Amino acid sequence: MSLLLMVHGNAILETSVEKSIYIFIKQGKILELGSISNLPTYLKHVKRIEIPEEHTVVPGFIDVHIHGAAGADTMDGSTEALTTMANALPSEGTTSFLPTTITQKHENIDQALRIAAEYQIHHNDSGKAEVLGVHLEGPFINPKRKGAQPLEHIIDPSIELFKQWQELSDGTIRVVTVAPEMPNGMEFVHYLNNTGVIASIGHSDSIYEEIELAVNAGAKQVTHLFNGMRGIHHREPGVAGSSLLFKELMVELIADGIHVRPEMMKLVINAKGTDGIILITDAMRAKGLKNGIYDLGGQDVSVADGQALLADGTLAGSILKMNDSLKNIISAAQIPLAIAVKMASANPAKQLNVYDRKGSITIGKDADITILSEEYEVILTLCRGKIAFKRGEQV
After folding, report:
1. What is the pLDDT of residues 247-286, one digit of tens each?
2. Which of 72, 139, 142, 252 has its CB 3.0 to 4.6 Å from that of 103, i.e. a possible disulfide?
3. Positive/negative CA dihedral, 321, 327, 333, 335
């Protein structure tokens, strides 16, 4: 399967932004890249897609924290749910993702992990977003900062239970959200780090000294910065302030203007730099659907006016799309598109240690490519070289 993209506008490449280039794709990989003026004669008869001058070609986005979309949720524990998500996400430019669990009964988490492992072996086909592993959010969190996580299923960090879950998942749990201040928390973070799993501090009431201990134990990430954590105080930095101070910590950011207001997005960029931020959606099943009542972890969530809320007013994930995330942070921080794209593509790829095949438009990497309009709307998405979404057409 061969395809030639003729880019007449901008292309955001790994180290530069170029105009008027061609991208030759074969068997799902980027095989050649160069100036249109130097297009080899042997490519002139390959099937091509002309990208207009007003559009921009960018690497596909990687969502490391997403519960659901299009009516499906990771906790449905079914191949059909993951397939629905994988088919829906390219419409917002996302080409790979970590389906994310929620605090629930052990048997429900068991089922979600088994299905996710099986999906990665048998159903990770090109032409839809790729499942790169699982993000285990909960149950190893602090009840004081539970947010929309069901209180009755929260437990202390347990290495033994995690070992069982990692075995069930065939070793595919890539990120675990944990409150390190809970009993056994530091040992748990250390274990995760030693086994190549990213410990992400979240739903945590830690103070600065506890965050320092967690970083020393190997914590590398922070789950949805500012949400579900002890905030900044001038006499106690808390989780939020400490996250901005420790360079070892990559922070997730929900750039919807609801979870984090625009001025705070700008503050995060000023404090962390653009290498220290990963844009996420933390989306739930209502994304892409109309307003109404939807389930999240056995709880009713009311979706209206762009917000997803529990009955008590607690934010319950988002209905944010990744391309809108870019649009919002570009507006809030007055940064160029290339910088926003880095936070949605290269940064998560590096964090997940898949930058050798994902996260940038480079020869040899997967042809995960998104075409954006001037208004950052998704025009076309390729997942491993195959068209997964084309605006106005059913793929």
Report:
1. 999 999 999 999 999 999 999 999 999 999 999 999 999 9
2. 139
3. positive
| The predicted structure's pLDDT at residue 313 | 87
Instruction: Supply the mean pLDDT for the chain.
Output: 96
Contact 243, 219 (CB under 8 A): no
226 touches 274 (CB < 8 A) = no
Find the distance separating the first CA and the last CA of the chain, reported in whole Å.
17
pLDDT band at 316 (very low <50, low <70, confident <90, very high): confident
Strand pairing class (299-304; 307-309): antiparallel
The tokens describing 377, both together, are 């709307």
Can you tell me the distance from the alpha carbon of 85 to that of 155, in angstroms, rounded to the nearest whole number? 28
Instruction: Establish whether 282 is a catalytic residue.
Output: yes
Q: Please, where are the H alpha helices in the chain?
A: 79-88, 106-122, 159-168, 185-194, 208-217, 238-245, 262-272, 322-333, 337-344, 346-351
Residues counted in the chain = 395
The catalytic residue among 73, 76, 282, 324 is 282
pTM greater than 0.90 (yes/no): yes
Query: Could you give all domains of the chain from N- to C-terminal order, each with its CATH number?
Result: 2-58+361-390 (2.30.40.10), 60-351 (3.20.20.140)
